[in-house]
Amino acid sequence: MSLDQSVPDAEEALAEMARIRATTRGHVLTMTWQTSVLWGLIFLGSVLAWLALANSVISALYWVISVPVGIIVTWRLESALPRLHDAGSYGATFKFISAAMVIGAFGTWWVFDERASTLIWFTVLLGGFAAFAFVDRQHWTVGGILVLWLWGLGIWLSTGTSRTDLDLTLALFATAMGAGLVGAGFGQRLGRPT
After folding, report:
1. Are residues 20 and 36 in the same domain?
2. 40 and 23 in one domain?
3. Fewest 10 Å CB contacts: which of 32, 172, 181, 194?
């Protein structure tokens, strides 16, 4: 084979490798669009539950029921695809991040006061979603999550410690995360060929 023939072959091979890498990242690392929409709706549902019932016990019960149901549905959606099971260290990374999000976000309410727990809850959940995006090399998404966290920090710093202020802060945080996840899920669905 002459040098003139090997250059186009090498370029073709590199282009094919880039295509395979992009396809693999799209199928191995990224959670499905249905999972993003599901968790977005869970967060938005918490706001609707709070607005409709205005009862912190019912709101807590909503989370106690919706998180395990969401985890089960997520597991069913994700395990229907062979990608996480075959992803090796990436699959383990996603399981670790998911567990850290659940334990950190909901365990904080047992350790800290309500005001601190509100910010920790928001930070841990956004940090988990940012970790998913970072592992998936979605740098713009990580930047967007950072901007959202800074907005949330501003809201948190500007509100007081009354029950109404804490409820309003949680409602704003849940709305922002829910809308972001639903938007990201449908954006992922519309932007990726089936």
Report:
1. no
2. no
3. 194
